[in-house]
């Protein structure tokens, strides 16, 4: 019961600070809880335009304000493209929102469906002119894939129309004999992660997602 009251008090304080315009990172430090908890507690609180501008201009570590402004510019561009309402752009952004990893400077989407990853690669090539050499492909395989590892890796590369130089070292999961029996004929090609390390692209996506969704996530600026 005491634990519940403490958590409720922390949540109330986090929401109060957010309504005052503090960043999720600042609230994390002030309240002393995990950033993921703060994000969950305050996600429905809308900031005013003045508060968002204040967060963009808040003091930062020496030399980091320039990079933060650059990330903000990339997000603004993503918002402007989202307002054009182009189908492929919307699809690509939603795929990243649903299946992507949240990082400041890399685009990572993992899935077992080759058609999904192929469409996401098409989106990246169309809107950002990503050349083949900038793509990275990582495969997550299972023990019963070991004998076919090279063929499975080539399957993903062929689906994405990428050369083998884009392939990073694959992971092979080991499991018990019992779980191996359950694994037969399930995910025949494992999962694949398509990656592009480019802060411009990922921040464009963050800005566009916020525009499509009608919300603001200042913490996505990093």
The helix/strand class is alpha+beta
Major sheet details? 4 strands, mixed
Specify the helix fraction band.
55-70%
Main β-sheet, spatial strand arrangement:
1-4-2-3
Describe what you observe in this structure.
With 222 residues, this protein is of the alpha+beta class. Among the domains are: 1-45; 107-197, no CATH class. It has ten helices and four strands; from the N terminus they run H-H-H-H-H-H-E-H-E-H-E-H-E-H. It has a four-stranded mixed beta sheet. Strand 2, helix 8 (149-160) and strand 3 form a beta-alpha-beta unit. Helix 2 crosses helix 3.
Report a brief summary of the structure.
Helices cover 55% and strands 10% of the residues. With 222 residues, the chain is of the alpha+beta class.
Which descriptors apply to this entry?
222 residues; alpha+beta; 4-stranded mixed sheet; 55% helix; disordered N terminus
